[in-house]
Amino acid sequence: MKSKLGFCVLIYGLLYGQPSVSQERPNPAAHTHGLASVTVVYDAGQLLIEMDTPAANLLGFEHKPQNAQQRQQVEQLNKNLQNPVTAFGLNPDCVIYSVDVAVPFSDAEYAHETHEHDDHHEHQHAADAHGDHQDVQLHYEWRCDSDGPPRITVNLFQQFTGFEEIEVQWIVAGKQGISTLSKNQPVLELAP
Question: How far is 91 from 177, CA to CA, in rounded Å?
Fold first, then answer.
């Protein structure tokens, strides 16, 4: 999945003459079990949220499914994450218009990878090259009709016990910052 949001963060940095949040400090959540990284950009009623998290936080494992139960778990996760409310709760005036979910070993991810490669052997080699570290990537876009940025509740803490902390890098109307969310503090208040 290509990062549309990464492009937006770069553009915001250029427009406002500030380094992007990710340039200010390294991402400690980069494939650390229990942690996840989220980027939020809000401007003129458009909200983009992108998340990268180890698959273990959502599935409890990162290896290729070894039985029917694990295969079903992967497919159910992929299906559930197609509904953004599984991950994030927003004001009712925000309407989703774009969903891009990448769950390793799901039928959707397998179809995507095999489309990019000419034969199954190359696909298998590419999947094996990732090793034991598999990530789930989410990209959601909403249009919000409120006067200011929405209040975002991270629902993942309630549904998946693998999460300890989520680091959020955000940009709102040219201002940027970093917030750390947890089970005890799952709400992100974005003030312009």
Answer: 21
pLDDT at site 172? 93
Q: In what order do the strands lie in the sheet with 135-144?
A: 94-102, 135-144, 46-54, 35-43, 165-172, 175-182
Q: What is the pTM of this model?
A: 0.75
* Residues 6 or more apart in contact with residue 80 via CB below 8 angstroms: 86
φ, ψ dihedrals at 16, nearest 5°: -100, 5
User: Considering the chain, what percentage of its residues have pLDDT values greater than 90?
Assistant: 57
What is the pLDDT at residue 65?
A: 92
Q: Which residues contact 120 (CB under 8 A, 6 or more apart)?
A: 114
